[in-house]
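Reagents: none. Just compute today. NCS2 family permease.
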Amino acid sequence: MADNDQRRDAKTATERSGSPSLLDRFFEITSRGSSIKQEIRGGIVAFFAMAYIVVLNPLILGGSQDVTGGSLDFAQLTAVTGLVAGVITILFGVVARLPFALAAGLGMNSFLAVSVVQEVTWAEAMGLVIINGVIIVVLGATGIRTAIFNAVPHALKVAITVGIGLFIAFIGFVNSGFVTRTPAGPPVQLGQNGSIASLPTLVFVFALILIGILVARQVPGGILIGIIVATILAMVIQAFAKLGTVGDPVNPDPVGWNLAAPEIPGQVVALPDFSLIGAFDLFGSFERIGVLAATMLVFTLVFTNFFDAMGTMTGLARSAGLQTKDGMFPRIRGAFIVEGIGAVAGGGASASSNTVFVDAAAGIAEGARTGLAACVTGGLFLLSMFFAPLIGVIPMEAGAAALVIVGAMMVTQIREIDMSDFRTSLPVFLTMVTMPLTYSIANGIGVGFISWALIHAMSKRGRDVHWLLWVVSAGFVLYFVRGPISAILGG
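Predicted 3D structure written out:
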């Protein structure tokens, strides 16, 4: 009785203080089994796991010239990358109140840099990104996106979560140098020529073991502690070894750091340059390459954006324990709309489409359950605009270890799938393995949808397939053969 009275008195005192109880009620912190401290910690961990995008996105977008020889400035890209990620993640946290974080999507920015700007200018490419975002917003606002989400069978939703777990673990292995390409023979190999031969990869192994032990022992902040300790170790190693980076365009170091060397920067604070905001041409690409070819590019952007985000949200919601039995999660329509706005904002600022980041799973693993964590992550992204040199100290190898740990956590969801029926087990298997093997969440979803529909139809269970799944599967068929179609249209 005394304990109950104390809790009642504490609750009354909290309510009288005003701000904390309002914050709790708005974000539903207590009802989701979390606390303000836990949300702040989860938001910080999510940022640490995603901080590399502040450096990587400018490297990807700034490293390619467009069809006219134009390019984007690295410093300006750094500023808008942090700005858009911060604003949209905070908006998502307030509107959707989910512990997801958004930033420039790696699949989208790579597609723009490698393919799109070979045909159009950067301004025109960003115009296409905006059009893609408007379509995504409309699909979310009208409920079409939610309807498609509801049409997906439960087993495939779980498979998407497991596939994403395998995918982000694979990303971690690749980013750390633990898994690399081979000059010939098998597509991948262990480390360098089949062995761990670099100090950065050893930092990854150390971080992986440390975080694994801390998580297994249920140490609060285990992932964050592991990233910080690994970063300090990396800085000590770099002070003595003076390693370069693998991707250095002038003097690449094959046993160096993946993205940037973890050294104390000469400059900690830098004022952001927002000159790229508004530097887009909405319809210029339609004039340059024609309506059909430009429409095909938009189709590709929409499909990638739509299903990558849908799959990621599914996996994150399940990891956070926020999915209901029918696979839904709170404020799903608002989440879809804000994610579309992220694409519009990213194109408008030349930062590329901003979408839900699978790396935010690190924050969820640390205990984040509400939009307050997203607001914390977003606030740190805004600060990163001024501290970009300091953010670059965190080696990708440290964040990669966290991704592998989170991937292992997500894969455990496979226990919810009944694999006894091959009509279910094959599409589920294809969904899970296609994501890491093709480096695309959208590809895994598409293969899963198509195989589910065809196998059920051909085994006299076609009535079990929702008609929307058939429509989306047909769209994925077009998506998978978009290359030949684009060639025909261009020819």
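The beta strands are 102-104, 179-181, 188-190, 354-356.
Action item: order primers for follow-up constructs.
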